[in-house]
Amino acid sequence: MAKKKQDDLNATTTKESGPSSQGNVLRAPAEEFYAHELDALAQADSYERPPGWQLSPRAVLTYITGGTVGGTTITPKYVGYKRLVEIAISTLLTDRSLLLIGEPGTAKSWLSEHLAAAINRDSTKVVQGTAGTTEEQIRYTWNYALLIAQGPSNTSLIRSPIMRAMEGGSIARFEEITRCASEVQDAMISLLSEKRISIPELQMEIPAQKGFSVIATANTRDRGVNDMSAALKRRFNIVVLPSPATLETEMDIVRRRVHELAKNLELQAPVPADEAIEKVVTIFRELRTGQTLDGKNKLKSPSGVLSTAEAISVLAASMSLAGNFGDGKVSPEDLASSIQGAVIKDEEKDKIVWQEYLANVLKKRGAEWRSLFAACSDQMS
User: Fold this and answer.
1) pLDDT at residue 13 above 60?
2) Do the Cβ atoms of 172 and 125 come closer than 8 Å?
3) What is the pLDDT of residues 208-260, one digit of tens each?
4) What is the pLDDT of residues 64-119, one digit of tens each?
5) Which residue, 124, 181, 303, 370, could crosslink 346 as a Cys pair with Cβ 3.0–4.6 Å?
């Protein structure tokens, strides 16, 4: 009886935590979350597919920028300059890798993930660049227990995401490459030039199969931390992703992503009305650019980057507050709490910037802004 209970427990655990249980996954990869769109595109795709690609370049573009295929609506994953997406896709058809550069929150990682998802149906071959990233995480390392017991072998070899991408002829992603030390970055030079990884311990080389490429991202705020060498930059085709050009474009991005987050996280509050979204985006754009939208007043900018991604987080946090501790509807108080947390990163400097913005800009706006101004002022007191 005890054994049966344990078997039932094991079966339940497997069922709840298995990969097929997408409903329990906090964040599913893009290829799983948008599987129905990728399936529809693949079924309708009549253009030639390059080696290793699951879709043609035209279908990848439709997946990224949106459209309609056979009655299925393809939601836009990147709202911006279509030509930049075309350049990015075309780059991945050549022998050069792709480097996406931009301010924080300009959808570099988001675009990187969705390009890999559309091209290979696999966006999970990722190296996350940090100060602690080592050369082994880019090339390969060893299972040292097996290495001691059996010596160097394929069994004891632990392949990096980039090596696995080379073997399978697919896309590898390198996030925040400028966060890595210079010597770690330089390990990429030979990989991108020779398109092979040498393993001296096994006296063998792993050549890249057709379809292999790397999509790297870099943050313009990190320039000077570990800036890329000229030699490494030459191995990439660089695409600069700008911040949203207009208020309406940024609102559209925020609205779409908040709807997706609300559904995925099952937030217990409805998405705020466009009026609330417009207020949050307006505040962030003005503080980010250092001037009001009409260009009449100059403003001090806070130390943090009030990006589109931050605006999305503010609205999601406000919905969580309203759903769990309010009446289920996002109030000015909920927005004020979340906005203040996003703006004030440096208590000493940013608090002054926020107080001046409230007194010189928000206070002087019309009646529709009065409730948010009052809530923000109360938060500061």
Assistant:
1) no
2) yes
3) 999 999 999 998 876 656 788 899 999 999 999 998 989 999 999 999 999 98
4) 999 999 899 999 999 889 999 999 999 999 999 999 999 888 899 999 999 999 99
5) 303
Superfamily (CATH) of domain 27-241? P-loop containing nucleotide triphosphate hydrolases (3.40.50.300)
- What is the average pLDDT value for the chain, to the nearest integer? 90
Asked if residue 228 lies in contact with residue 185, where contact means CB atoms within 8 angstroms, the answer is yes
What is the domain partition of the chain in residue ranges?
27-241, 247-380
